[in-house]
């Protein structure tokens, strides 16, 4: 067994969604096994159903504590959750699958904190199903942060360097605010929060991806960067002071810049990371650059966590059409960060 390969916990996500399919498809990609020893956390029978659906030449074995039974043609599955999940119709929001996804994530976090895994890769869960099961989190990110006991954290969407011809280490987009109504964004923006995200962006691009001095661009909030106060003063009142404080701390950061041009400059290689003010400001731009190849990375945790950058796709689930490129990228990125 090559112990240099990182042992990764792959959570199955919502069993009614495309998570099991993308895991099975990704398992057939040799890049996954070149860098990692993955173990699925979920229900073995669901994984068997996905193998049959895709007519994959894979076996599924149930494991307990012996995680080293990992072979490219076998999916080891650590059973989490009850058999009730087997009765949930495919493509539906249900508290049973929400509970199962929650239990798999909690088990993955606890096992990784205990040192039995080197990192976590999550398949998508349904926020509605999570809420139906009584777990009132906006998503993976906030649940991970609470379980790990951290308050300074962020979601970063990341495109690997092979997707950007002018990039050395890829492009990351860190979000200051995340899962909230757009009307709440203004009240949740602060100089301190923006400064914190600049530090997190610098740290992951330096320590995780090996850049000596990552170049970070900060988004404006308003159209045209506020147009000298005509369209809002958040740029001068909140964002610019954060940039100045980050520069004083030795971070190579500039801004705020209007987002429509900033993302073009980043795509062309001028920046290694972007700090976006709200969810869609960062998500839309990066997903246009590489929807199925983007990776979701949670920053600020004491453990490594990556994920696909898409949802459960209930409308396409269990139809053998799921795209696995993002899962492969999430696994290889987690293995790289775990080093």
From TrEMBL:
Which UniProt keywords are listed?
Metal-binding, NAD, Oxidoreductase
Q: The organism sits in which domain of life?
A: Bacteria
- First-level EC class: oxidoreductase
Tell me which Gene3D superfamilies the record gives. Answer: Isopropylmalate Dehydrogenase (3.40.718.10)
Which Enzyme Commission numbers does its entry carry? Answer: 1.1.1.262
Q: Kindly give the NCBIfam families that the UniProt entry links to this protein.
A: pdxA (TIGR00557)
Protein name per UniProt = 4-hydroxythreonine-4-phosphate dehydrogenase
């Amino acid at each position: 067994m090559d112990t240099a390969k990182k042992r990764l916990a792959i959570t199955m996500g919502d069993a009614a969604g495309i998570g099991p399919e993308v895991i099975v498809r990704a398992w057939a990609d040799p890049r996954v096994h070149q860098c990692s020893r993955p173990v699925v956390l979920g229900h073995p029978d669901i994984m068997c159903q996905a193998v049959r659906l895709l007519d994959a030449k894979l076996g599924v074995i149930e494991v307990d504590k012996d995680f080293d039974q990992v072979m490219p043609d076998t999916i080891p599955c650590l059973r989490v959750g009850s058999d009730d999940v087997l009765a949930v119709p495919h493509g539906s929001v249900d508290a049973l699958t929400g509970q199962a996804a929650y239990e798999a994530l909690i088990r993955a976090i606890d096992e990784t904190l205990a040192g039995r895994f080197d990192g976590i890769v999550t398949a998508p869960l349904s926020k509605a199903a999570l809420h139906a099961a009584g777990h009132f989190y906006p998503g993976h990110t906030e649940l991970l942060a609470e379980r790990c006991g951290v308050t300074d954290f962020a979601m970063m969407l990341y495109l690997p360097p092979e997707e950007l011809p002018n990039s050395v280490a890829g492009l990351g987009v860190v979000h200051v605010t995340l899962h909230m109504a757009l009307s709440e964004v203004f009240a949740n923006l602060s100089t301190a929060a923006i400064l914190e995200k600049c530090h997190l962006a610098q740290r992951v691009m330096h320590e995780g991806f090996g850049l000596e001095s990552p170049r970070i661009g900060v988004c404006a909030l308003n159209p045209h960067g506020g147009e000298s106060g005509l369209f809002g003063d958040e740029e001068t009142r909140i964002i610019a002071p954060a940039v100045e404080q980050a520069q004083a701390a030795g971070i190579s950061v500039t801004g705020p810049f209007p987002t429509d041009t900033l993302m073009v400059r980043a795509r062309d290689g001028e920046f290694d990371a972007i700090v976006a003010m709200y969810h869609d400001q960062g998500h839309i731009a990066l997903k246009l650059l590489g929807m199925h190849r983007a990776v979701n990375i949670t920053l600020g945790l004491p453990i490594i966590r990556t994920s696909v950058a898409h949802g459960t796709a209930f409308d396409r689930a269990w139809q053998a059409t799921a795209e696995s490129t993002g899962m492969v990228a999430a696994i290889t990125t987690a293995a790289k960060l775990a080093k």
